[in-house]
Structures are given as C-alpha cells and as structure tokens.
Amino acid sequence: MKTILFCQNPYAFGILEPIMEVLKEKQFAYLWFVRKSIQKQFPFQNEPFTSDMEELKEFKSDVIFVPGNEVPYYLRGLKVQIFHGLAGEKKGHFRIRHYFDLYLTQGPYFTERFLKLKQQFKNFDVLETGWSKLDIYGKELHKYDTVKKQLLLKYKAKKIVLYAPTFSPSLTSAAFLIEEFKKLSKQNEYLILIKFHDLMAVELIEEYKQLAALHKNIVFEEERNIIKFLLMADIMISDTSSVVYEFLLLNKPVITFKSNSKNIQWDNAVEYNDLLQKVESNLKEDNFKEKRLNIAQQYHPYNDGKSALRMVEVSLKYITKNGVPEKRKLSFLRKVKIHKIFGK
C-alpha cells in the first residue's frame, strides 16, 4: 500500500508520525507532502518528503492520510480525513467539504454525527478508529516523567501548570490573563509553562515572552510537541481549544476561561479573574473527575495505543474491497479552490 502523509500545517507532524511508524513496520511505501513554507519545521528530514505536486502524482498513491481540511482531488488514492483536533464545537469540524472518501473518527461522539452526515450526502464512508496522535497515551504515558522531575527540581517547584490557549482572536484568553499569571507566579510551588499555537498573534507571543523573562517560574516553551507538556502538566489552563479534550483524556484537571463548548465537564470561568484560587481548588479537590471519565468514553475511548494501526488496517481493507479511486469527483467551484491552493 503506497501512502501519502499530507501536511499543510506543522500540527500535522505529530498526528501523522504514528501512522508513519506503522507503515514502516508493515514495509509499506510512503511519501510525506510538506508545504514549502513549513519545510524548515519538518522534524523528519531523513524521511522521504516533497513539496512538488508533480512528484505526488508520479508516486501513484493508494491512500492519502490528511489531518487538514483540503487535499487535491486529482491525486490518485483513497482520501482519508483523520482530523487535527477533538473540539466538536469548533466552527467547521463537522463541515463536509467533499474532498474525502473516508472519515476516520476518534470516538462515538464524532462517529454518530458523521454517520448522520453520511446519510445526508451519500458520497463518503465513516469508520471509528481512535486518533493516532493519542497513541502515546497507551504506549508511553510516562515517557517524560524524568524530564518533569528534573524541571521541578531545577525551578524548586511542586506542580506544573500548563497554559495552552487557542490562537483564535475572538476566543483566546491570552490577552486577558497576563495579570493573573503574574499573581500565580508569586506562588513558587508552581512552575508555569506557556505553550502557544503556531498561529498565535505575534504581539501576544512577545508579551508572554517578556512575562517569562521577568518571572523565574514562568517558562515560554517553543518546542512544538505539545503532547510532551500535556503528559508532564498537573493541571492545564485554556479556553476554547481542542487541546482541552486531549488533556482531559489524561484524567487531570482543566480550567478554562469563557469556553464556548456545549459540553463543559470541567471548571469554566466566565470572568478573567481568580486564577490562583481556581488552580489551588482544582488541584486539592478535583471535583470534575467523574465528569472527565464521561468525556473520555464519548470522545476517545481507546487507550491501547493502536489507533494508527487501525487507521492503516481499515484503509487497506477499504481499498481491497472497493478499489483505489483515481480521483475524487468535485463541483466546479471546489475544483477551482483546490487549483488556487495546490495548482492543477
């Protein structure tokens, strides 16, 4: 099975890496597509990759795994949507753009919705596999325990507080919590790690870098692997970000500010204040533990570390049964959009 791992944004690297490892184990040929603008950020420089659409055409793939929203309709291969987050309330998560033949869902909450959409549009299939990005939860849950111990020792702290907000200008809490983090930093028992999305506003990035420079127990993290920080953190602070759900699956407390989620099963503040009190109460009392377990069952019940394996195996089974599509049928306007993004 010849496979394309399709990357338009850096967040795709960590989602597709577990699939690459499965392809290696099975000795299947694969090729990464990495946009020129993000090539320098690509962490697997020794792996086969290209930014050339002609090279992708010549590769004649059987399957294309895509965490993003678009993929060229004219490429050979089963076009598989594998998603880049767990936030079902985000605008566009359930939007059918007609670029994909198969949707591989993370859990029952998503599967149920996409099956209804399948009945409506009748031009794609839906299978539940779990999400490759979270395979590490099942395989290497304690991978960064030593790093965490070293950090706590270095900063003479007892707990790690992770701040990971959304970048969306209308939803981010970043502009409103600087004073709250100053107050929190006065408590030396907390090591505060700031982890921003690649698309966060430049001025906010600079503000938080300055904040970190002035407070010894605030660290602005630039490493892209957010999973590392999710595994190390004792509590997370966020807003309307899909990373909230990734953290909830670790069964650790979350505090959000003005989240627009329709299924809030954690401590959500409606005003930008009292951060210190909220951190202390959630670490001591953890009143949302049972509710978090409900989220896990609905959003991602797989903790065996084998979602990437299921993705590869169901895709192979699908093309074995149905054949490999030479291209995807699209409306004229959808084709024009693809031509603008990727060329013809």
From TrEMBL:
A Pfam family per the record: Glyphos_transf
Gene3D superfamilies: 3.40.50.12580
Keyword tags: Transferase
InterPro entries tied to this protein: Glycerophosphate_synth, TagF_C, Teichoic_Acid_Biosynth
GO (cellular component) term, any one: membrane
One GO molecular-function entry: CDP-glycerol glycerophosphotransferase activity
Name of the molecule in the record: Glycosyl transferase, family 2
